[in-house]
Specification:
Belongs to the CcmH/CycL/Ccl2/NrfF family. By secondary structure, this protein is mainly alpha-helical. The chain has six helices and no strands.
């Protein structure tokens, strides 16, 4: 019984959150809607697409996307409409334009900066003068002998 349950669990396909009342009659429009909704982020679930999310806001976004497609919008216009209302955060893979270039490039730039600073520090340390030890004075040698003899 446990094996059967394990096999059924492993073979279970992922369930989509799209409700039957949301599905469009035109299969071509529905396929476009599914493709676009898989690239839009659920604002409640964060890293889940609106196609996979059961949140009510994701449902509203799915319905809005389908309304825009039925109205005759192209894929770019429909996604652009949602982005204009909710911001670029709604895209699962953000565009690399404008201020996003700073975010895309910040990691590599910081790595190069840290590597450069580390190299300069190590080179300066290698070139630095080594401290030479001064010999003990006669009083210090006598004091050391007293301590070691005890």
């Amino acid at each position: 019984m446990k094996r059967l349950l394990l096999i059924l669990t492993l073979l279970a396909s992922p369930l989509w959150a799209v409700q039957p009342d949301e599905v469009l009659d035109d299969p071509a429009l529905e396929a476009r809607a599914r493709e676009l909704s898989q690239g839009l982020r659920c604002l409640v679930c964060r890293n889940e697409s609106i196609d996979e999310s059961n949140a009510s806001l994701a449902r509203d976004l799915r319905i809005l996307l389908r309304e825009r497609l039925v109205a005759g919008d192209s894929n770019e216009e429909a996604v652009g409409f949602i982005v204009s209302r909710y911001g670029e955060y709604v895209l699962l893979s953000p565009r690399a334009t404008g201020a996003n270039w700073l975010l895309w490039g910040a990691g590599p730039l910081m790595l190069l900066l840290a590597g450069g600073l580390g190299a300069v520090y190590l080179r300066g340390r290698a070139r630095g003068k080594t401290a030479t030890e001064a010999p003990l004075s006669p009083e210090e040698e006598a004091r050391l002998r007293d301590i070691l003899d005890v």
